[in-house]
Amino acid sequence: xxxxxxxxxxxxxxxxxxxxxxxxxxxxxxxxxxxxxxxxxxxxxxxxxxxxxxxxxxxxxxxxxxxxxxxxxxxxxxxxxxxxxxxxxxxxxxxxxxxxxxxxxxxxxxxxxxxxxxxxxxxxxxxxxxxxxxxxxxxxxxxxxxxxxxxxxxxxxxxxxxxxxxxxxxxxxxxxxxxxxxxxxxxxxxxxxxxxxxxxxxxxxxxxxxxxxxxxxxxxxxxxxxxxxxxxxxxxxxxxxxxxxxxxxxxxxxxxxxxxxxxxxxxxxxxxxxxxxxxxxxxxxxxxxxxxxxxxxxxxxxxxxxxxxxxxxxxxxxxxxxxxxxxxxxxxxxxxxxxxxxxxxxxxxxxxxxxxxxxxxxxxxxxxxxxxxxxxxxxxxxxxxxxxxxxxxxxxxxxxxxxxxxxxxxxxxxxxxxxxxxxxxxxxxxxxxxxxx
Amino acid sequence: xxxxxxxxxxxxxxxxxxxxxxxxxxxxxxxxxxxxxxxxxxxxxxxxxxxxxxxxxxxxxxxxxxxxxxxxxxxxxxxxxxxxxxxxxxxxxxxxxxxxxxxxxxxxxxxxxxxxxxxxxxxxxxxxxxxxxxxxxxxxxxxxxxxxxxxxxxxxxxxxxxxxxxxxxxxxxxxxxxxxxxxxxxxxxxxxxxxxxxxxxxxxxxxxxxxxxxxxxxxxxxxxxxxxxxxxxxxxxxxxxxxxxxxxxxxxxx
Lengths: 437, 254
What we know:
The structure holds two protein chains of two kinds. Chain A is mainly beta. Chain A has helices spanning 10-26, 52-55, 69-72, and strands at residues 84-103, 106-126, 129-153, 156-179, 184-207, 212-237, 240-248, 250-263, 273-279, 287-298, 301-310, 315-321, 326-332, 337-349, 352-361, 378-391, 395-410, 420-436. Helices cover 6% and strands 63% of the residues of chain A. The longest helix of chain A is centred in the N-terminal third of the chain and has 17 residues, at 10-26. Chain B is mostly helical. Chain B has a three-stranded mixed sheet, with helices on both faces. Helices cover 61% and strands 6% of the residues of chain B.
């Protein structure tokens, strides 16, 4: 499992722990899939941030002249008009994954949905430039699942899965943007990166002969780091804008703890078996370069496109068994990724704006190879976004949404070389407001 | 992927000096979107925002000079000012008038209908017609000069205060306000030359350093324009009301 040929994500290690608990005890390897991480670490573009940007598929690096720019390109805020405040709210965020042909030939669905605050940003004049502060939630999962399956395999009468998984990533911090001259602006954002995850699962199996077994698992993770962002915004010619950013997340503290308790079908002792695991190994994030180009033909229409390149970011995770004094080393592979976005904005009149965009959210995992085991899923996603804004002099209200769909492959039972088809959907419906003063 | 990354990095590295060195005074106005270019004052939300903005600016004015606490004078100025406000084209605004506790001779207007006249200006005024002329003039700034209002309203409060206290209005705005104010007081039945008389009076005070002249264009030019207007409209020598008695009955500052 820990051989160098395996490419297993951080939570595959935890999956391995659970798998061994069950597999050793009962040999029903299909139980393994229930510990697959639902947090979408396999993609980098899970929630599109911001007011205008969300409607334009995130193609905003060459615009960024409002509080959303604090997130996309801090150099753009140097071109913002006056003081402004933005508040954003993701009214509804849903992620759904379907793994086909898993449970005795049936598919298995996992679904996360929640209402979450998505973005807040404020820009103020400061010195010769503009400063700002922003808060963003670029990834969030809230899975609360209770499922019962009957007769999935000979000998099993009922299989119950309960999962509660809360996984959120927060970025917050100051920004500064300044015009070097009328054509060039520089900017920087220093985000605090903070991720917290609480995962609780319960698995219960009732056998045909009356025996039963169960296992409970708990995992707690906090991850802290810094995400510096450097941006440039150029005006190479009238009505053209080019923006570029460079960023990378540096983790300075990770605390991963896990605990599992279990009872086998033939277990009669009074003491319940358990194991405790811990890791403080730091996750590696890719270096990200984004290049954006925007064209402003008039004050009523604009077009924008972004291309983002994420370098590969391999690292090694050691999951330590506290009681046994041993650890499982895992080589985690995150491949390089290119994501693209295009967007357009149209004002039929001064009080209304319509926006649309297309974007990609490509997987950072390798394509699955036949015959191998413990391979993370690979699902490339393609999305579209729409939004409409209503303006008054000092404020705007935006309603919109984006939807991404992807088909790929997964190996939901880690030690089984069989590969399943997987479908993933991501829907966000958002309401946001901005206020200028 | 690495090749793509290197390609992007190379393009950025090579083009940066070119873009940096091609410095000119290019305008970034093209970044403005339609709502930032085309502004309207027709929506209730806009009017509320204008009033909020004006209230903040009015607070700055009051903070700088203080309110002259005399209910009789305040009521009188409000009665007269609100009567004149019906001649503006901002019926959606409720105009409020107050007297500032300073001997400087000046008057101010903030968006949203907040009008101020100084105690010094009241001392310089000799009749109700002149007071009507001053209020109509400054009220015109807020009530009718939409272009000016847009200019102020889109500025921050700090900058708007700077316009009021330091930079002053644009010359043409002030001249337009004089013209409209003269026509308003004439329509209301007051002496058409009242504003001109008042300006002539305080222009002599200006020489004595009593006025805040830096916020106004040259009095001589304004007076000349008003007098030309009176002649052109055959308003010279006509007998109109100046209402001296009621003014002195209500304004006892000397």
